[in-house]
Amino acid sequence: MSIVFLNGDFLAAEEAKISPMDRGFLFGEGIYEVLPSYQGKFIGLAPHLKRMQNGLNELDIANPMNDGQWQQVILDLIAKNEGDNLGVYLQVTRGASEVRQHGYPQQSQPTVFAFTFTIDAVKDATIESAKTYEVSATQDLRWQRCHIKSTSLLGNVMHYQQAKVQGCQEMLLVNGKGEVTEASSSNVFMVKDDVIYTAPLDNQILPGVTRAIVLDILRSHGQYKVLETPFTLEQAAAADELWLTSSTKEIAPIVMLNGKPIADGKAGPVWLQAQTLFNQYKFLY
């Protein structure tokens, strides 16, 4: 039986109840985070909590807990659920108000919800065992504040479903300049001539925690030149390697884009080195 956390209580998932007047339900007015835990060890706990705080600040929602309290809730939630390798979902909405109106209510109590789900165990990185992705690309039709990790994910969901209908596992998103910004649920990296590229942080992309960790690890080891700079869909199609990054995917090779292979259509050697380094150092963040 899955145990969840809701507004200060741990209870069975089927017993959790949230008001239909909650602004998270009515407006998608909330912030969420997903962080991985492997046998009790976290990846990027502090950066995830910091990004959640930044998002709550953007929405003018008071954080109901400090970092220490959040960490204790996460630890208790993991202890109450089965599994050595768990993803932890955290969500804070503005809470319920008596009247449905677009303006923020003057008084509301944030709704805090958290649950766990099973994730794959850590594996050694090999070309043969790499989980690869086939993706499509399309014009980004979402809103202009993609740096906020909001629960208002309809635009992302519709782009993801668009990829699924096309038989792909992800959708790369392209802005009006023809530049790849991110994917519907991931950040994107490109490798060309031993240089690693990813789009710079701005309102077009989510500041991914895994993205930041990957950049820090790669730069710390200095084997490859790493640039945060725009690249086009045309350049991506001609790349030596393309990757997706996220908390649950870690670093995932893209082998097909719009029905055509990237390079030889297999996970590449730079990905292998990057994922190997990530496995070695990820628990330090």
Please supply descriptive tags for the structure shown above:
D-amino Acid Aminotransferase, Chain A, domain 2, nine-stranded mixed β-sheet, D-amino Acid Aminotransferase, Chain A, domain 1, alpha+beta, 15 strands, 285 residues
Poorly predicted runs are none
- Assign the CATH superfamily of the largest domain: D-amino Acid Aminotransferase, subunit A, domain 2
Class per helix and strand makeup: alpha+beta
Which architecture name of the largest domain does CATH use? Alpha-Beta Barrel
Rg, alpha carbons: 19 Å
Task: Characterize this entry briefly.
The chain is 27% helix and 29% strand. Strand 7, helix 4 and strand 8 form a beta-alpha-beta unit. Helix 5 crosses helix 7.
Describe this structure in words.
With 285 residues, the chain is α+β, with helices and mostly antiparallel strands. The chain folds into two domains: 116 residues, Aminotransferase class 4, branched-chain amino acid transferase, N-terminal domain (D-amino Acid Aminotransferase, Chain A, domain 1), CATH 3.30.470.10; 152 residues, Alpha-Beta Barrel (D-amino Acid Aminotransferase, Chain A, domain 2), CATH 3.20.10. It is built from seven helices and 15 strands. Strands 7, 8, 9, 10, 11, 12, 13, 14 and 15 form a nine-stranded mixed beta sheet that branches. Strands 2-1-6-5-3-4 form a six-stranded antiparallel beta sheet. β13 and β14 form a beta hairpin. The chain is globular and about 55 Å long. The two termini are 31 Å apart. The model has no long low-confidence stretch (mean pLDDT 96).
